[in-house]
Amino acid sequence: MLPIESQKTSQIRFMLNGEETDVSFAPYKTLLEILREDLGHTGTKHGCELGECGACAVLLDGKPVLSCLVLALECGGKQVLTVEGLGEDGGLHPLQDAFADLGAAQCGYCTPAILVTAKALLDQNPHPTRDQIREAISGNLCRCTGYLQIFEAVEAAMLKIAGQKTSAT
Amino acid sequence: MPNERDPRVTRVGSLKANENDLRVIGVPRRRVDARAKVTGQTRFADDIFLPRMAFCKLLRSPHPHARIRRIDTSRAVAHPGVYLVLTGKDVPIQYGILPVSQDEQALCVDHVRHVGDPVAAVIAREELTAFEALDLIDVDYEILTTISNPEEALATSAPRIHEYGEEGNIHKLVALEFGNVEEGFAEADEIFEDTFFFQGNTHLPIEQHASVAIKDPDGKLTIWSSTQTPHYLHRALAKVLEMPAAHIRVIATPNGGGFGGKSDPFNHEIVVAKAALMLDRPVKICLTREEVFYCHRGRHPILMKFKTGVKKDGAITGMHLQTLIDGGAYGSYGVASTFYAGALQTTTYHVPRYRYQGCRTFTNKPPCGPKRGHGTPQPRFGQEVQLDKIAERLKIDPANLRLHIVESPNAVTANFFRLGTVNLSECIRRVVEVSGWKDKFRKLPEGRGVGLACSAYLTGAGLPIYWNKMPHSGVQLKFDRCGGVSIFCGATEIGQGSDDVLAGIVAQVLGIDPFDIRLFTGDTDLGPVDLGSYSSRVTLMAGNAALQAAERGKAIIAEGVAEKLEVPKERLSFADKRVFDSVAPEKGVSFEEAVCIAEARFGTIGTVGSYTPPKSPALYKGGGVGPSPTYSYSAAVVEVEVNPVTGWVTVPRIWIAHDIGCALNPTLARGQVEGSVYMGLGEALMEEQEFRRLPKKLSHALVHKFPSILEYKSPTSLDMPEVITELIEEPDPQGPFGAKEVGQGPLLPIMPAVANAVYDAVGVRIDEIPITPEKIMKALAEKKAGREPRFGPSHFPRINWPEALRVPPPWEGGDGNAVNDVPRRTRRVSKKEKVLTS
Amino acid sequence: MMRLPLFEFRAPRTLEEAARILDAERANAMPLAGGTDLLPNMKRRQQVPRMLMSLRHIEILNRVALHDSGSRLGACVTLSEIAADRRFRNGLTALAQAASLVATPQIRNMATLGGNICLDTRCNYYDQSYEWRKSINFCLKKDGTTCWVAPSSRKCVAVSSTDTGPALMALGARVRLVSRSGEREVLLSDLYNNDGIDFIKRRPDEILAEVSLDNLHGWKSTYWKLRRRGSFDFPVLSVAAAVSLSGNNTVEDARIVVGSAACRPLAAMEAAKSLLGRPLNQQAIEEAAALAARIAKPLDNTDFDMTWRKRVTAEFVTYALRELRGDDVRAERESFTRCAFE
Ligand SMILES: Cc1cc2nc3c(=O)[nH]c(=O)nc-3n(C[C@H](O)[C@H](O)[C@H](O)COP(=O)(O)OP(=O)(O)OC[C@H]3O[C@@H](n4cnc5c(N)ncnc54)[C@H](O)[C@@H]3O)c2cc1C
Ligand code: SF4
Ligand code: FES
Ligand code: FES
């Protein structure tokens, strides 16, 4: 049997947080593994690698998916957004601000995945109800907060983004 | 976006008179480490990648109980990409968190005690290679009898899982009696006897344990690890690696959740340290979720029997508690857990006479240990459900009954714990009021109900894990000419906000912004010792140490500035990043200038602070578990809806009041309450660390039923009820700014309150945790058949208890010693740590 | 970190190319759709195909065609798309409900209809890592000789855990299977076997290309799912029901399917038959519920106690039929699923 290392043959080009990115990797790897191990993007976390916790969520072509169950080989030409790409113009995204202010991140381990998932929600539905927020993050386990401060943070960000939009027009 | 007015948390009580001076403390604010967390930049242990780093995987025992006859690693060693294979003989020295239970080995040498016990380690260039090479290690096992539960442990004297302990497979027996309990029962108008079972459950932090070790350029060892207790890991590493502790640096990376599950020194930590030293390259391990279930150290399954005597008005005359505890395969914190299970019954309600008998057994399962509430949620469940039964029989409203018997502030309990502030009555009154209890209890339609329960918890263990007279926490401050302040402290950030507590306290004292502070925490090289993030001790202990260091720094700076401004130093105020005359505020200097003035006057400025808890009056043997500088209190009302056919339970709302002393950062305090409620609800309804014994005729297997985060049921965002939180703030003199703990206490009343609510809803008692629909349906069937409407254990096995240590309570003239033991007025300086060899 | 074993990878762009690959590789290759079932299974070494053949690049498998004459859904349509598509209502409500209750939002964005239909059967003794299974000396379904659920049984009794399967069966769905040698269309109810290992009659060289549904005008359907939590969890029991009612509320036709109570979704024929020509009154519903519960034989290999799951079957059939006759059972639905279905 050959050492796995020698299998590092696959390559893809994709858009990672808006930047064209080339990466070569061992072909058995998932998107989660290449992000963390081959691209140094450790903001995306993992708690099971089996699709059972939600900590590895990223946006793939704008939709939240579990990076632990996406083959890296399948990501060529795709758009991937991770927590590292969430901030705007060097500042924090309103969701990040709200999470920071309102106690929505305790240990912060589930946070990156919840942030990108919430971003996808707000992109698609700028005024979600509490129940829609609850539902949108129902695939992200948080063991610390009991979720309530997370719901409130998403709501606060929603208001802030809506405010920015109206003041911009 | 400060949530000045947070609709979901009400704060009751008066903070300090000089509230105007509190610009940081008590103000909801962004925690200092929030930005790192929301940008994904918090570096957890598995986020560390170093050049030349190798990966480690552990080969684990597939057998619950076996002797290792032989291990052949040659095929694995020869596998391409493998750097090193370790077995037990490479790290044979025993260790364990408690000096009395040094019963673990990093890799088992000749005896495996549960499925998942590690026997060998492969270190390879890629993790996948290491994983594949595990299958190339040949281990020859001799199968031993599987001991799957405490009753089997009691009945099986051989083989022994450990060669130490009481006898056979009994690890620890405890028997304590405070006053004559039989006399108490004789005085009672009614006597209640109930058995309860609390199933084991686990922490399930979303971050899986990970560690990275390197040999430093100068030949020393550094390890980054997701540990809550870097100091204890430091000691264990020094012992097992036979290295001077001064040559070892432990850095506790921020934990992605801990809840007690990262408080023991772990085999994988020792293994990567050893491997890094041998290979002279960085070695990392990150456990899989399944392996985290094998580390466990979670809630002990406990069978309990409560016998309680009461007067007609509910006053307790005596209580006798027996526990049978399933410890799993190792000691861990188990001796402490065994005492804890009997410790806090006396801290909520006045119990004049009390007897506790506890028995912890070894079984072939992952070891149990401390989980949020350590040893106390199980008996709290029994006690609070029994009180509900008592109230019903005595025809007293359960809230009123509790109000009648609440223990008084500053009391010394029957078992000699000195209480601090006790605002349990206020907690009860608040939840009763906000929940509309009076209109709901026994008044809601069939299928809906409310239940109430209370609890108390320590604000830091009064004694360290190994006997010593040194402080429990130390803080160093460095004052910078540019106005910055650095905090150095061993305290460990596990999500609870320990960094923010330190920064908040120092910023408040010095009148600066918490964000002006840099923190160097959880690093054994950089900061003075803090014992760790366990027993809700950080806020009070590290907080007091920080307070002292900050006050000392403030005094030096004030001295310098007073001289310069020619103002008496007592008149100086520190606020808004200025030091100024409180009488003439325009007269002052910036904080930065103030530091420069002081540095010019006194030289480089650095201060230290430390904290040692007050001496406990509990001098008897075993009295070391339970004392605390002060206790927090909680009361909760849970509302449930129960489907009367299927037993399906929905919890729409929970009200909780918590006696916190002072909410240093109310945003975080509320988060701790809600997080505790969340975890408590999971325990109440669905979480179970369950095992499967295959049919004995066919197999010796005893496996974790489903070691996955999918089948270990942690509530999702859709399962979380509305929570209405009340924080009761009467500053406790022991706490920094009066603060008491909030990270564990609010979990405790949830499980019994759910059980009591289920009874209110459908009239059945579920005397067992978790409360599942199947159990409710069975109890409903009993009810329908006219039998006792109950689900729960009916029998407590006979155990040969040792003679109890008899300690007369304070009101019988006791001095804290047992009358039938050598007096221990001052604690004996401990014998040297005894290493138990098997 | 759980990692995949090594595999070869193909990503054909057409169905023909895919069929050729499968024809050449047979059981060595497995189609990969959303990967949300197959990849975890591979990480646990339950399934170790030498080759993965991705279906995601075959355009036509992503199509949804809803016509008056009936609908056709490509196998790679995601469950999120189905759940969000408001055209799946009335006759087709059960499908949208089932899709919306699968796993989690992120998984539904990845998971496909075809993958959900072909989902491997599940069992507490099987959906475990290689090391765990080693510690019970494996089981009949993979690498072992004993079934730990029923040690005396020679057959594996792993549970069909698909949510859309029972719903689609209740809607009378057919599936189109394509292989190099041709294609065939079968009723979904004929695709499944009551055997935990050999649970699907898809040949290894066949691709499930499409699901077709009749126009179910005049029908109403619903899906009830039992699981411990509001998301993540697989069904441990489910009931799909569809009825066509005449003007005076008598049942003209009915289908009831019980899911997750055997190795395949079970059509409750007698229960459905008992309703024909009768109004959906209390008595008719109770009888049907009892008949349906009779065929459910849950075993001790999922979450929850098996006798309790059986008891809930009757309850769920009752809710489903009451809902179909127009009762407001939203509160009951919400209490079990922890969310509303709009
Ligand atoms: C945490 C978790 C929870 C889950 N909960 C649920 C749940 O509640 N309900 C539920 O039903 N499922 C659940 N699942 C399983 C899975 O997500 C879904 O069943 C999903 O629909 C599978 O689709 P997929 O496209 O991801 O399938 P894949 O994993 O890609 O494939 C599944 C199987 O079908 C085969 N296959 C796929 N497409 C085709 C095709 N077109 N032709 C032939 N063969 C094909 C594959 O070879 C494989 O054997 C859960 C999974 C996880 C990880
Ligand atoms: S039903 Fe039996 S054979 Fe099938 S997976 Fe489960 S234990 Fe194995
Ligand atoms: S790591 Fe848990 S879902 Fe991906
Ligand atoms: S903040 Fe710790 S898991 Fe969510």
Short note summarizing the structure:
With 838 residues, chain B is α/β, with parallel strands linked by helices. Chain B is built from 19 helices and 33 strands.
Can you describe this structure?
The complex is a heterotrimer of chains A (169), B (838) and C (342). In chain A, strands 2-1-5-3-4 form a five-stranded mixed sheet, with helices on both faces. In chain A, a hairpin with a 2-residue loop joins strand 3 (57-60) and strand 4 (63-66). Chain A has helices at 31-38, 94-101, 111-124, 130-136, 148-168; strands at residues 10-16, 19-25, 57-60, 63-66, 79-81. Chain A folds into two domains: 4-85, Beta-grasp domain (Ubiquitin-like (UB roll)); 94-168, DNA polymerase, domain 1 (Orthogonal Bundle), CATH 1.10.150.120. By secondary structure, chain A is α+β, with helices and mostly antiparallel strands. Chain B is globular and about 85 Å long. In chain B, strand 22 (578-581) and strand 23 (588-590) form a beta hairpin. Residues 1-5 and 827-838 of chain B have low confidence and may be disordered. Chain B has 838 residues and is α/β, with parallel strands linked by helices. Chain B has three domains: 45-144 and 203-295, Aldehyde oxidase/xanthine dehydrogenase, a/b hammerhead (Aldehyde Oxidoreductase, domain 3); 174-201 and 298-463 and 621-791, Aldehyde Oxidoreductase, domain 4, CATH 3.30.365; 470-611, Aldehyde Oxidoreductase, domain 4 (2-Layer Sandwich). In chain B, the strands form eight sheets. A seven-stranded mixed sheet of chain B has the order 4-6-2-13-10-11-12. Chain B has a seven-stranded mixed sheet with strand order 31-9-14-15-16-8-33, sandwiched between helices. Chain B has a five-stranded mixed sheet with strand order 1-29-26-25-17, sandwiched between helices. Chain C has a domain at 60-117 and 160-340: CO dehydrogenase flavoprotein, C-terminal domain (Enolase-like, domain 1, 2-Layer Sandwich). Chain C has 13 helices and twelve strands. In chain C, strands 4-5-8-6-7 form a five-stranded antiparallel sheet. In chain C, strand 11 (251-259) and strand 12 (266-267) form a beta hairpin. The radius of gyration of chain C is 20 Å and the shape is globular. The mean pLDDT of chain C is 96. Classes of the chains: A alpha+beta (169), B alpha/beta (838), C alpha+beta (342). Chains A and C meet through strand 4 and helix 4 of A and helix 2 and helix 5 of C. The structure holds flavin-adenine dinucleotide (FAD), iron/sulfur cluster and FE2/S2 (inorganic) cluster (FES) (2 copies). One FE2/S2 (inorganic) cluster binds at residues 46-49, 51-56, 66, 68 of chain A. One FE2/S2 (inorganic) cluster sits between chains A (105-111, 142-145) and B (206, 257, 495).
